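For practice. Supply one:
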Amino acid sequence: MIMGLIANGSGMIRDLEKSGSLALYVPLEGGFEGRYQRRLRIAGYGTYNITARGLGDLAAYLTGVHGVRPPHLGKKTTGNEACVGYVYYLPPIVNTQLDNLPPKSKGLVLWIMEGFVLSRQEIEYLTILPTLEPRVKVVIEMGGDRAFRWTPLKDALIAAA
């Protein structure tokens, strides 16, 4: 669906609630993303922005406790362990954001930028994430276009095949 410059965003919100996940194609000059995120917040959703670059295992990063090892910058661990730095364990992003939503919130919209770097398997996982956690909706910026448009993520996955 294509939206003009002046739009209230209700069509996108309705399609997002219906399908659970959307693939966005946005003008490269920017500006539309913020408008639609504001409309989502007005509609009662919380939004969380992340970039697809460097996410790693999506299931572990989004819904499970996962270990990260920051760049060691020459620092070494103490003891007889590998000299690559300590592993720090972080809480799941989605569950943490859901726990911190206001009580009357409709849910969380996970807004992922640079979605063109995701593999087919990762996109498939993001299409089923709203069924695993019904309060989560997923929006992925898949590329640029001359006008702001969206399609259900499962349809974008079929078109990419």
